Amino acid sequence: MSRANSLPGLDKATVIPREEHGISRKDISEAALRVVYGLQNAGFAAFLVGGCVRDLLLGLHPKDFDVATDAHPEDVRRVFRRSRIIGRRFRIVHVRFGREIIEVTTFRGHHEQENRLREAPTREQSRQLDSAHSHTGMTLIDNVYGNIDEDAARRDFTVNALYYTTDGFKLLDFHNGLADLRERRLRVIGDAAGRYREDPVRMLRAVRFAAKLGFTLDSASEQPLRELGELVESASSARLFDELLKLLCGGHAEETFRLLRAHGLDRVLFCHPYADPAPAAEEAMTEAPEQKQAPAEKLVPLALRNSDRRIAEGLRVTPGFLLAALLWPPLRQRLQALDGPPNLMQLRERGEQTVLEQSQLTTIPRRISLVAQEIWELQLRLERRDRRSLRYCFDHHRFRAGYDFLLLREESGEDTGGMGQWWTTFQQVAEAEQTRMLEQMSARPKRRRRRGGRGGR
Length: 457
Ligand code: ATP
Ligand code: MG
Fold this sequence. Notes:
The protein is α+β, with helices and mostly antiparallel strands. The protein has 23 helices and twelve strands. An eight-stranded mixed beta sheet has the order 1-10-9-2-3-6-5-4. A hairpin with a 5-residue loop joins strand 4 and strand 5. The protein binds adenosine-5'-triphosphate (ATP) and magnesium ion. Residues 50-51, 64, 66 line the site of magnesium ion.
């Protein structure tokens, strides 16, 4: 008899047999199966859990595979040579197979001790305590181990708390997750407000999964978002940056952004209060012109839609490009406060200020902000009607991104002097024609010192 059958807490699960759930072993990553079998052979219980089970049930390709086990991190470490323990406040093990990493978590249990900390735990505290909370109820250390049913109760959403066992290929459901999944409903396990307080990032996860899966948040899970949204700020800016990337690069960024705004969560994630979308055409007729949405604001959802489309086509998206788009509205505001069109130095400086302001909320690694800066700087040059500048742009390693950004600006209603079209043609024609097009441009940079600038820059 296998170890899993005698596992404490297992009796609390509803067991769904193989014939009733449709998960096929062949869709499971070889590496994940090797981890599960490896742990079982060493005498432990091991299950696939979380997003991979959820996505397999929905017929989607899981992004990664997570394994839950009763083995402690040190045990897991001993079973797999290529593994390492990561995290201090929430210790997990990464097992590596080639390029794939399987995340192995030990069943979490209830916290019996009340350790309240005023600040983030020190290294020493993380070593000594296995659980701790902040004054707002946020979990700071979560290394109390427990049984599988307790582990299920500590997961965020019911659809994320389904366990798949290779022992009979059954599904274990502790919180009616399968019913929610079939009704396309996202529901927090337990008291939603309390669970958001424990970990405010769960509010962002709620929006991310709702957008990705096309699920509806149930009202008890949705209702606290507006009131508790501000707690998100108490999460570390590094973790928020990771989450921001997941929100934007998961292929559903446009819908995610819409939902973040609908629940007031954009305020805690972005340094800029984005304007509401423009009213429908017939309302717009009666709207005062200044109430119309500015082009820079329109650019954001357009950029997100574009990037979602790229991901659907299997193309790569550059986080720096998305950052350039998201921060374009606040950057434009800064540039508009200048006395005329900006020069390169001014653009660079205002760009840095904008990035700095955003990085107070979410860390922004330099490698990403540099890309955004390059894209912004190219905007200035792509519009300049002089040969040297145009040549420089075309040879620039970010030309493609800069050009795409220029097109987005045009699409959102900015006046770029028709240079988007010029560049489109330029790339389509033969080299001789390119030379001719360049010759039609002035040989020397024109100084543009008009007040107010073209297109309100
Ligand atoms: P995806 O990998 O597609 O983004 P996922 O659901 O697998 O989605 P992960 O971040 O990989 O998300 O986490 C794996 C599982 O761990 C989740 O499904 C959930 O059960 C649990 N989990 C992750 N983060 C939290 C959290 N903040 N609170 C509670 N449970 C969590
Ligand atoms: Mg996952």
